[in-house]
Structure formats: structure tokens, C-alpha cells
Amino acid sequence: MSDNIRFVQGNEACVEGALYAGLEFFAGYPITPSTEIAEQLSSRLPKIGGKFIQMEDEIASMCAIVGASLTGRKVMTATSGPGFSLKQEALGYAIMAEIPCVIVNVQRGGPSTGIPTHVHQGDVNQARWGTHGDHAIIVFTASNHQDVFAMTVEAFNIAETYRTPVVLLFDEVVGHMRERLVLPQPGEIPIVERLRTSVPQGVNYHPYLPREDGRLPMSDFGAFHRYNVTGLFHDMWGFPSDDHEVVHDLLRHLMDKIENRTNQLAKFKEFYTEDAEVLLISYGSTARSARDLVEQRRRRGESFGLLELLTLWPFPNDLVRKKAANAKYVVVAEMNTGQICQSVRLAVDQPERVFLANRIDGEFISPDDIHKTVRLIRGKGV
Amino acid sequence: MAVKDYIRERFFPHIWCPGCGHGIVLNGLIRAVEKLGVQKNEIVMVSGIGCSARIAGYLDFHTMHTLHGRALGFATGIKLSRPELKVIVPMGDGDALAIGGNHFIHAARRNIDMTAIVMNNRIYGMTGGQYSPLSGYGILASTAPYTSVDQSFDIVQLAAAAGATFVARTTAYHIQQMIELLQEAILHKGFSVVEVMSQCPTYFGRRNREGDAVAMLKHMQKITTPIGSKAKAENPELIERGVFVRKELPEYCEAYDTIIRRAKEGK
Q1: Domain span including residue B133
Q2: What secondary structure does DSSP assign to A274-324, as a single string?
Q3: Which domain holds residue A372?
Q4: Claim: this prediction has a pTM higher than 0.95
Q5: pLDDT of residue B267
Q6: Chain B residues lying within 8 Å of A90, measured CB to CB
Q7: A200, A282, A307, B172: which has the fewest Cβ within 10 Å?
């Protein structure tokens, strides 16, 4: 077997992706089913001179990575539902202060402690609206280890490009399942490095004054530019302001830098979508069963197709509307009570054609589970 | 350097009420840094939320105004990431010991090299005078109209028990001692805690009939005494000032460097 082929858990694929992207600092707290990410990084990071710290709780872990990012490091934390709830306040801070960071949530069943060792995809809307206040957020997911790796790298690249937190929403099945991972060679996937200011020492540097292209070059804490960072609405100096124009413009900037790039940020995969009469839309581990069903039905000559979403937020409305335009039935497969189904219904021209195929009991959804729903919709009985 | 070289005049006037003790702490801190000769670029100041937290924005260091109670979490990320930087964390009593209590004891336990300044005015000032975990039994506050029945923490004992390797207490009245203690705390290798008893004439003083700022300062002079003084022996009610803990233990970032060496060597 070649050196760059591994047989690993999804959580390890995430670790490999993060290190490939240049991760230097990880703070975390043990929680099932994401703990392997922390365990692996506690061993891998010091080997490359990076830092790992197990904090006293999920809140502090999130705070620590934001602090470390300000000193110029690429940073990440990993958790699951209950911990993701606790991280929301500091996640909002990273949005407001525009500090790049990556937050992994390997989803388990909720609400509350829920069903820690089983799979659910119930945090989709929390990832969108978990922190308080109006805001935009970027959330990626993946169904297999090669994509877990690639989307983890992408998460770091996007976080650095737009100075924003990026959430990686994986799930217990993807996190714990083992499969082949081919590690790309260095340079095979482009890596985005932080944009640092070119303003020389002794000249005023405005940390929150966007360039013409909307980007904000950073200056590391400890370098020669000294400035203020706050979670309050702030002016171009990073100093608190309650001026209505400053507040309005900053909130618009935080929304627009992401929402205006929805189509650019929309990562997806498609299988037989062109002539699909039954279009499945799915993501995460559920997309594995959806794809299997599509292949099964295609072998029987039935026109099934799959749109697999890798970007969940901002929701790719245009993409979904376009792909669903000619389908007779649009079936959203997910392991929750219809969180993405709701968004699909809002995106398409004919929402009455959109149906939900789900499973919410902690058991992994099978191709058969999805097919039963499709048969029912098409009036074929179960 | 002059005091004004350390402040961001653009952001003045400050938000504190007339007579607030926090301005004295700001002054003392600047003088401590000036006496030490530490470069402004080497200092990161991380604060939480509250009246005390605003101290960070006024100073010409690398400054981060974070979340209520969480300053030490952010500061830990900064320090571990860049151990060469001096990290100072000014906090209020509610900030440090109510919502931030867990972070406080764990930062102390880790002995990570930073200086926590707890500006203890025994009240939540920014929200209008609610009782804090330092108000103590029998105190009037906007959320304790019949007096508080909560017992208070002793910051010094708590910090020492949690493992802080430098623990000191002073007051806004004792400005010279404050400057000396802050200097020693900043130089100390490890987690240092300096409690500065500070006055809030607007909310604490007025409601509890302690008088104006001058009266409150004089009161602090009266109720405190140097550690081990004769006065303390005669009146155990007096609050001691000075250095309570000064010890050496492995500092967190240095200890982690040995982990990096071992990991690189494969041991």
C-alpha cells in the first residue's frame, strides 16, 4: 500500500485535513463522538511545534482558539451538540470581531444529552442560528472521508479568506466509520494563507477598514500595529461605537461578505441529476444511503438522481431551485425532522413536490428507508 | 515615557463615573508598566465585560475586549500561542468570580504566565448596581432590596487554593503599594492575581451609605492593614494587604515546550 493511503475514521480524516491546511493551535474538551479529533491532535500538533490544550470547558476552548487566531495562528476546536451549544457565545464574538477559526461539530442525537453514541443531523439549524443576533455563517459538511479531508481544508481556506468562523458539521457515522483516505501531496490542494496588512510601522493601521474588495488585512497581536478588538459594534479602529451609521454598516458588512457570495460558496456533488424524475437531496452520512439507492434504481432503469450538498449555509437557493426544476419529486433525505427540507421548500418553485425521507431514532438511515418514502410518494405502497 | 504615551487619547473621555476607583487602577497600571520598562508591543491586555473591562480599550497595547467572564479563556489562547508576550487581564469581581469563576480557578491551576487584576468594587456597576459574589452578607443592591443573604468569596484564599503562584491584595487608596504589587505580579513567572479593592460611589457607596469617593477611599484605608501587622492581631476584622503567595512552580507554556521537544524526539 502506498504511503499516502490510510484506513481511518472520519474524525482522523478531519485531523489530516486540518494539518494539511496548516492548523497550528487546537483547544478542546472531551465529548462523544468527536473526542478522537482532540486525542489525535494532542499527539500530532506538538510534533510540528503546534499547540494543543484541553481547556476547562467548551466555552473556554472556543475562547482560546479565538485568542490564538489573533496572534496569527490557524486554529480549530471540535465538539458535539451539547458543547456546540456552549460555544455559541464565543462563536458570535468571532463573527463580530472577524477572527478566522474552524469549529467542528460531529453531530449526535439531541436535544440535551440526547443519544451520544448514535447518529443524528439535528444541529443544522443550530449551526445557522445558534448564536444570538442577526448574522451570517458558513457551514460545510461531507459524507465520506475524502470529502471530510477536502472540506476541512476548504473550511480553513474560507475562514482565512473572509475572516470568519466556519463550521464543519459532520455526524457520528462519518466521524466513526473507517474507510480509505488518500492523502493529497503537499501543494495538490491550494492553501490560503492569512492576508496580513502591508501598512508599515508608524503609519495608522485600521483593523476594521475594508479594502475595495471587501477584505480586511490583519495584523498579528504582538506585531508592531497595536489596536483594539471588541464584540461591541465598532468603528474602523476597532473601538466601540453606538453611532447608528457605524452599527448599520458593520452589520451589513458582516452579512454581505457571506450572503453575497452564496453561489461561490455553494459546494455540492451531483449524480444523474440531469434527467432525474426523482431527485434526492441529501448531505452528510445520509447522502451515502441516498447515493446507494440512486445507483440501485438506475440499474433498474428508473430515473433517480442525487444532489449532495457540501455547503449547508448560506443555503444554496439558486442551485437547489435549478436542479429541482425538472424533477417530478424532490425527496430530501436527512436524519432530523426536516431542517434542510424546510430550506429546500423555500428555494424551489413548486414546494408541494418536496417530500421528507428521514429517520430520527439514532439508527443510521438505510437506502431502503429512503426508498420506502419514495414508494409511498409515488403511490406504490410500502 | 509619560503617562499619556500609554493611553489612546482618541478614545477619551472614559466611561467611568466621577469618583470611580477604576481610573486609579488604570493610572497605577500605567506607572507599573512604565517603571518596568516593558515595551507597549510586548503587552496584550485581555478584558471581559463590565466597567473594569473598559480599561483595555484606553491603553495603547494590543487590546482585546471579550465576553463577560471569558477573558482568561481568550488570554490563555494568546499566551500559549505566543508565550513571549506579556498578558495582563483586568477583570471585575462579578466578571472574574461569578460568570468567570471556572476560568479563574483553572487558569490559576495551570499556572499559565499572566497577570489577573481583579478590580473588586463588590457590585455590578455597568448594569446598575446588582449584588456580586463579593458584595457579601447584609449588603444593599438593586437586586437585594432587603439586603443580600449571599456569603462572599475571599479572592486571595480562592486564588491561593486554586494554585496561583503569586497572590496579592491592595486597594485604590494605596496607590504606591498597588504600583509595586503590579510590577512584581507582571514580572512573576506564572499565574499572578492582584486583588485591588476599588470604590463604586455611584451604586455601592450611595446605596450602602458609605459616602462619596473620598469617604469610600478613607474607609478602605481604615479597614485594611499590612499582612501580619500588630493592628491585625488586635483586630481580626481588618483586611490584610500585601503579598500572600509567592512561589515557584512549572509555568504552563514552558512545560508545554518540553512536551514539544519530547514529541519531536518521539519520546
Answers
A1: 14-265
A2: TT-SEEEEE-TTHHHHHHHHHHHHHHTT--EEEEEESEEES--HHHHHHHH
A3: 269-377
A4: yes
A5: 73
A6: 67, 70, 73
A7: A200
CA distance A28 to chain B (A): 11
Q: Is the pLDDT of residue A30 over 80?
A: yes
At residue B193, the 3 state secondary structure works out as strand
Whether B140 is covered by a domain: the verdict is yes
Would the pLDDT of A131 be above 60? yes
DSSP secondary structure code for residue B11 in this structure: G
- List pLDDT tens digits, range A74-101: 999 999 999 999 999 999 999 999 999 9
Q: For residue A258, which of A138, A95, A380, A114 has the smallest C-alpha distance?
A: A138
User: B123-124 and B130-131 as β-strands: parallel, antiparallel, unpaired?
Assistant: antiparallel
| A218's grid cell | 490583519
- The DSSP secondary structure of A47-63, one letter per residue, reads HTT-EEEE-SSHHHHHH
Task: Decide if A39 is inside a domain.
Answer: yes
Comparing CB atoms, the residue among B41, B77, B262 nearest residue A67 is: B77
| Residue at a domain's end among A134, A151, A182 | A182
Cβ within 8 Å, pair A221-B44: yes
- Are the Cβ atoms of B73 and A62 closer than 8 angstroms? yes
Q: A66: which residues sit within 8 A by CB, 6+ positions away?
A: A75, A90, A93, A94, A97, A99, A101, B74, B77
Residues A155 and A281 in one domain: no
Tell me, yes or no, if A237 comes closer than 8 A to chain B by beta carbon: yes
Cell 478588538, located at residue: A229
Of the three residues A182, A217, A245, the one that is the final residue of a domain is A182
Rounded Cα gap, residues A52 and A77, in angstroms:
10
In a domain, B2, yes or no: no
Contact B64 A222 (CB under 8 A): no
Buried b (16+ CB within 10 A) or exposed e, A219-228: bbbbbebbbb
Of the partner residues A47, A63, A226, the one whose CB lies closest to the CB of residue B62: A226
Query: Which among B62, B102, B106 has CB closest to A222?
Result: B62
Q: Residue B248: pLDDT above 80?
A: yes
**Residue B102: its chain A contacts at CB < 8 A?**
56-57, 60
* Side-chain half-sphere exposure of A295, counting CA atoms within 13 A: 7
CATH of the domain at A137: 3.40.50.970
Residue in B with minimal Cα distance to A92: B67
A194-207, pLDDT tens digit by residue?
999 999 999 999 99
For A25, nearest residue in chain B (alpha carbons): B81
Distance from CA of A237 to the nearest CA of B (A): 10
> Cα–Cα–Cα angle for A283, A285, A288, nearest 5°?
85
What is the DSSP track for A191-231?
-PPP-B--PPTTS---TT---TTS---B--TTSS---EEES
What does A134-200 look like in DSSP terms, one character per residue? S---EEE--SSHHHHHHHHHHHHHHHHHHTSEEEEEEEHHHHH-EEEEEPPPTTTS--PPP-B--PP
Residue A1 — pLDDT band, cuts 50, 70, 90? low
- Would an 8 Å CB–CB cutoff place A127 in contact with chain B? no
Nearest CA in chain A to B108: A56
